[in-house]
Amino acid sequence: MVPRIDVLTLFPELVEAVCDSSIIGRALAAGHFELRTHQIRDFADNDYGKVDDTLYGGGTGMLMSCQPIYDCLRAALAGRAVSACEFDPDVPSDDPGSPSDEAGGTTPRLIYMSPKGRVLDQEYIAELAAARHLLILCGHYEGVDERVIEFVGFEEVSIGDYVLTGGELPACVLIDAVARQWPGVLPDSAAWQEESHFSGMLEAKQYTKPQEWQGLTVPEVLLSGHHAQIDRWRYLSGLSETLHKRPDLFVRLNLSREDYAALAEFERERSVEFERSFELERSDELERKAGNPNGKQTSSNSK
Ligand code: ADE
Fold it and tell me: Which of 90, 167, 240, 279 sits at a 20 to 30 Å CA gap from 195?
């Protein structure tokens, strides 16, 4: 009973290309979830595969028609042991014996990717991941005829306040964010709970080898092996990142007096460290100038 995502689109190859890559691609290959794409054009009721038309009332561009979308949706859900098709009395609503019932016969969330929708955030992603079966409609051109959205009862989901040329890339964003919450998808299942946004704040600054690069060093506590101190530093670094980079999130954190005091101290230490490295840079510069009074760059000191 692995989670399942169906995508209704005019560009299945676009969704497949993105989702067959990297971590999500490996998770699909390993069977941690199932992705089924459906070509809406295959359901056009004309000989030309025409799935769009001009706008009533005038206006530029073309709008995707109801019929191929609706027929594609019915085919995608046909035989499912779901009651999602309340809008369609022809589709069986409760058939636990259905062979295509891999996702547990749960009602799929019917999603239409749209810039008018509720904007995705980590909380919304968690809610969608809990559903374990999503059906995503991707619009193209000027969008889709409003009647199919209302008739089916699609929930509209946006990935941000800007407009893209189609819903396929937003769908891939949603799939990536949701799937990485499902068991087995991430190599280390605990890791995502420490990431930015999981607890309403950004994660700590992170460093890897070498210990020194371009004169910049890694915070000493991270080399100490002292886990409690490292955890404390990471918490405060996360708070500091949130304060500086996302003050809108910072003001929503429910911090204690102790947290504020510790953060103030952390910020003070950070500015002392900054001053120190700045002074070091300045003394390096003075030294360089003293050894090279004409200020001409040599191959060893040019950066
Ligand atoms: N389709 C076009 N723009 C979009 C957006 N910002 N979010 C979701 N779907 C879209």
Answer: 167
